[in-house]
Structures are given as structure tokens and as C-alpha cells.
């Protein structure tokens, strides 16, 4: 029987005192290792604002809801975060690999308007889970790792002042383990959930009935798996004809999910190098025209075949990431990939459609290596704007850089006013709390474009050791001189607000590394 999962109402006892001291130590470390490295912002592309030094939870995943608040969450088995659960509550989970009793939060609700946050309660592990926003505005997050493989978690758009509004979890609500799966919202409001590690199938949620445990096999996923996998988190886009465009590794199909059949197969992306996790590129369905008759998909970045295994070797070679993008009109009678080149290589990048309907932001990630713990070393600091309607050769424009590394487990979301909220980055297996860079992972930063330059103070916190995890959150206002207006980590309890320098940026989703 499926049942909601609740937190144990336990008192933290000695842990509370220990946690208080922990935060105090972090605050002192912040002053010690970050003093003197704050520089004024510059760059013609815009500015970054560091909104919060830390919200206490790393943004492995973020989602903006209709109440203008962002739901932030990390995995649950990394150890204590730096944000206490309210009311002396503790999470009691005997299946947790690190802390069976944990009195800290691994999710937070960030209020954009007031620049404040509060802890939320997640019980089971959301590491490399996936989700959609339901028609009623509820965030539906599915799968994860370990005790969260088949669980579904939901959080509504909470009313102002409702401190009781929180996550609800349903155990074993899915029919198969979904770790590194992809969710696509369908016209009927259901989520199409595809793939996951060693899962060559798909299913729908919500289920037609509580007893529904059916999954539907998809051989395409098995056919695109290689020794490094490289087909996890497949790219899925809803086409204008109602079918699903599905891309895995370097191949794509158009899939009729209602009849469980492949409508067409697309050519292999030129070069044959993988674009999905762990060679994590990114993808968007390009902006549609009114009453569209054609649709185009853009796939950018990734890593050459063999890159992931190369990082795991004794000497750890980090192969340069891919600098190419493939663009294809998926509605053509004879579709073909058109290859374009970005200003610099990128893996684990995020892509977001900007609200003017004419630009794509590409942000976060690295210039070498792959997704995974310790698998990349050179951050991609400078975001890029892609303008699909410009002439070939004039579509990419590199923006001013953030100076804060956003590597593995970083994320970005588009806010309602057109700015991008950027956060996360944790390239290590567990929290490394005794470092300046780790303190930054939970911070919130925003990017301010030139048109807002007079209205906002823009400075940036420069973290010089890019190998450390980043807890900061940045807000970037991407509306540059050619823009008008406009969408997934760590912990530090400090609320100090710093400013950070930067250049314009762009973003969407980054990868997760699987456990061996």
C-alpha cells in the first residue's frame, strides 16, 4: 500500500547545540578565507548580484512556482545541511546512508520578492530525480536514489504566511526505479517519465489506478546505451503534432506515446559524440511562431566519447568538452542537422528560453571533463546568448563571466521578471564545509543586464579555487541591449549578503553522477 511519508517529531537534543556551533564556525571561516576578494562588478554584458551568501541548502534542483517562490532541494544523504528543520523536528530514516537521524533541512522555499527563505522537509533521497509542474501549479518530483527510487513528492504553490505548507511524499508510487530519468508534461496534464539508470522503459504519472504498476519498454534507450551509459536524462520535447521528440546519446526519434510507436527516426548528430549524461550537453525546443507549422530543436555541448572514463583513470585526464551545437527542424520531410560552433566548449551547461522569444541563454558547466564527482576542472564562467533568427555566424554572443564556478549539480531558473536565478555546484561526493567555496554553494545571486544597471548594485564574490563546491545563488538579469523580457546546491547557514562581479550569463539543467 502506498502511504505518505512523514517526518518524525523528534527533539534534536545535543545535536541542536552542535549545529549552532557548526554555523558559527562556518561564519568565521567565511570571514577568514573570503576577506579581501570582493571586487566591483564590470563588463558590458551586465552585472551579477549575490542575493544570499547562503540559504543553507545546495541547489541541485530549483523550480519557480506561480507564487513567485523558488523550491530548492538537494540530495538527502550528504550529511547535515546548514539549515535547521523548524520546531525541533528531525528526519528519521533508517535507510539513509549517512544520517539516519537528521535535524537539518535538505530543501528550502526562496521568496523572490522579499529575498527570504524557509526550510522545507524532504524525507527520501532526491538525488538526480526529475519532475514537472502539474496544471494546478504543484511541483511533482519523481524518483531519485536509494530509498527514493520509486517515490513521488509534491509541494504546492504555498499561500503567503502558511508555514505549514510543505512537501508530501508517497512511497512506491512509480512502477520502476527512476534515477536519472526525464519527465515531460503532456497536454492532458500527466507526466511522461522516461528512462533512468538501467531502465529502458517509460510510464505515466498520475496512474490510472493505484494498482497500476505497468511500464512500457522502449528498446531505443537500450540501443543508445554505451559503456559509459551516455543516454541518461534523455532530452524530451513535445512537438507541435502532439508527438514527443526524444534524443539520447547522439540519436533521436519522434515518438507517438499514445500508440507506443516510433513515428520517425532522425539522422545521427554529426560526429557521433554523446550529448547526454554523463557527457551532459543540453537542449531546448526553439521558440515557436504563432500558429506554428514547424518546430526546431537545439542541442549544445557535451563531451567526446570516452571522456567520462578518462577522468576516472589514475592520472585523471580531462578531455576538452564539445563546442558544437546541432540544430534540426524536426517537422521537415527530410530533416538534417545543421552544426554550429559556440564561442567555447561546454559540458553540464544549462539552456533557458528568454522571454523575448528570440534568444536562448546557455550558462553554467565546465569546459572539460564530464558530469560526476571530480570529473571536471575548468569552469565555464562566461554565459552565451544564442539568437536563432540571426544569420549563421552571428548567432552566439559571449557575455560577461560570473567568476563563480557552477559545475556539477548547479542549476538555473527563469524568474517572472526575466532574470535568471543561478545556484548550486558540488563537484565532491560529500559536503566539504571547511572551505570558502563551499560556503558559496548555498548563496543566491542574480545577473543584471545593462538596461537595469542603474537600478541595481552589481558586484561579485570571486572564489579563486574552482575545485571546491559552490553554495551561492546568483541572480542574473539577462535582458541585454538586444533583449526584452522572458525556467535544476550545498549548505551554509550564514545570511551575510555579499556582492559579486560578473558578466552576463545563461542557464538551465546540469547533471548528476551515479554511484558505483
How do the helices and strands line up, and which of them pair or pack?
Blueprint: E1 4-5, H1 14-34, E2 38-40, E3 47-52, E4 61-64, E5 69-73, E6 91-92, E7 101-102, E8 107-111, E9 116-120, E10 130-133, E11 139-142, E12 152-155, E13 168-170, E14 181-185, E15 191-195, E16 201-205, E17 216-217, H2 219-223, E18 235-238, E19 244-248, E20 251-256, E21 261-265, E22 282-285, E23 296-300, H3 307-312, E24 324-329, E25 338-341, E26 350-353, E27 360-363, E28 384-386, E29 396-398, E30 410-414, E31 419-424, H4 436-439, E32 444-448, E33 459-461, E34 473-477
Parallel strand pairs: 32-34
Antiparallel strand pairs: 1-13, 2-33, 3-32, 3-34, 4-5, 5-8, 6-7, 8-9, 10-11, 11-12, 12-13, 14-15, 15-16, 16-17, 18-19, 19-20, 20-21, 22-23, 23-24, 24-25, 26-27, 27-28, 28-29, 30-31, 31-32, 31-34
Structure in a nutshell:
The chain is mostly beta strands and 516 residues long. The protein has helices at 14-34, 219-223, 307-312, 436-439, and strands at residues 4-5, 38-40, 47-52, 61-64, 69-73, 91-92, 101-102, 107-111, 116-120, 130-133, 139-142, 152-155, 168-170, 181-185, 191-195, 201-205, 216-217, 235-238, 244-248, 251-256, 261-265, 282-285, 296-300, 324-329, 338-341, 350-353, 360-363, 384-386, 396-398, 410-414, 419-424, 444-448, 459-461, 473-477. The chain is globular.
